[in-house]
Structures are given as C-alpha cells and as structure tokens.
Amino acid sequence: GLIRLTLRKPMGIVFEPMTDPHNPSQQRGVRICDLPRTGAAALSQKLEVGDELLSINDKTMSRLTFDEIMDFIIEADKERVDLLFRRPDKDKLKGESAVGSPSVSSPSGAPLSPAALGGLGSNSNSVKWIDEKSDMGGKLTEDTREPEPRDDRRGGRN
Predict the structure, then answer these.
(1) Which of 23, 31, 70, 155 counts the most CB atoms within 10 A of its CB?
(2) Which residue has the higher pLDDT, 128 or 79?
C-alpha cells in the first residue's frame, strides 16, 4: 500500500540505498532502515522499517541515487515535507539486500567465501580481505590449537 504523510524537519528517518531490480549494480531509490523512537516519523505511527520512498513534495525519488535524494531532503522546506512511501510485500523484503550490506551470496543463496569471490584459489589480487589478525602491529599470530583436517588456504589438493 501507499503511505502519504507530511512531516517537519528533522523528520527522524534513517534511509538506506536500494538496488535497481533491473540492474543490480545500480543504486536507485531509498528505503527506511531505522526510525528513532522519538523522531517525528516514528511518532506519526504511519511508517515502518522497509518502507520505500517514492516522492518528496511530489517529485519522484525512486530513480535517483541515495546522494541525490539526501540533497533533495536537505533543500526541502523544514516546516513541511510531503512524503509518499510504498510498503513492499513482506515476502519480497526477505530476498532483497541493500547496497553496501555485508551479506554477499551466490546465485544459490549460499554465502560466498573470500576464496570464491577472489576467483581460483585465494591468492587472487583482485580482492583483499582484511580481518582483525592482519592488524597486529606487524606480527602475524598463529593458532596453536590442533590443525583442522581441511585447510582451504592450500588450494585443497591434499
């Protein structure tokens, strides 16, 4: 369904970018990722996390990038911001992930390992994986527990 409301700024809405369903590498439009309890939007009791912004002051936002939309919000009159949101179907939300979200999955939906993203073997230079162990003042720490039976870092040719 559609939700239309008018808020004053600050509106109390945290947006996140969405991906273009026709071109997943493109970021288009925003949706609500947080509604602080004491913000104007939460107090209106009309909006929910996941609602997609369609327009601000009758200007369509769904084809704009996150930055373009934020600029438009900043420029809007602080006394009156007319908003139109779309509430997506609940089952659609499960399959989508926001741009920049940490969940990266393969076409089957299984999470991808660093080796899978880096191509053949994990020695590929196209993807750099950084974790807490790599920033230990120049020291690499070795795990002193018994080795696991399988060690993916050796290319799996045991």
Answers:
(1) 31
(2) 79
State CA 18 to chain mean position distance.
7
- pTM exceeds 0.90, yes or no: no
Q: Which two tokens stand for residue 144?
A: 């002193």
Q: Which of 85, 15, 73 has the alpha carbon at shortest distance from 47? A: 85
Cα angle 71-42-103, degrees, rounded to a multiple of 5: 65
**Ramachandran class of 8: left when φ > 0, alpha when ψ lies in -120 to 50, beta otherwise:** beta
**What is the SS3 string spanning the chain?**
CEEEEEECCCCCCEEEEEEECCEEEEEEEEEEEECCCCCHHHHHCCCCCCCEEEEECCEECCCCCHHHHHHHHHHCCCCCEEEEEECCCHHHHHHCCCCCCCCCECCCCCECCHHHHCCCCCCCCCCCCCCHHHCCCCCCCCCCCCCCCCCHHHCCCC
Residues shown for the chain? 158
